[in-house]
Amino acid sequence: MGISIFGSSCSCSPSTTIIEKVVEKVKEVIKPNPDPTNFQILKTHWAGDYLAAEVFYPDCTNYEGRKILVYNSNKRKIYKAKFLDPHFCEGDHISPIARFEPTGFGWDMALMLIDQLADISDTNN
To answer: Is residue 42 a contact partner of residue 30, using CB atoms and an 8 Å limit?
Structure first.
C-alpha cells in the first residue's frame, strides 16, 4: 500500500495533500509585485531635473512595500501621477532611471546620484 504524495486514496479523508501544502508554502514565499496605482510618496528630494523619492506600495511585501526610486522628472509630475510603477520600462508613464534598497544608505546613495547628475547637467549647459 504505502503513502501517496497526492493524498489518501480514501475519498472520505479530509487530509491535505502534500502538493496542496507545497502550493500554500510557495504562495507565502512569493512576493507580489506592487500595484502601480496604489502608492504613497513618503519623501522626495530633487536636484536639477532629477528627483529621488521614497514610495510606499501597501500591496507589496518585500521591504515592507518601500521603494527608493530616482526619476529624470520634476516633482510636480511625480506628485500628480496616478500610476507610478517602480519597474524600469518604456512607455507613456513615468519610469525610474535607478532604484536603491530602502534603507538609510540607499537613500543617501540616491541623493548622491541625483546631485551628481544635476552637476553634470549644469556643466553641460
So the answer is: no
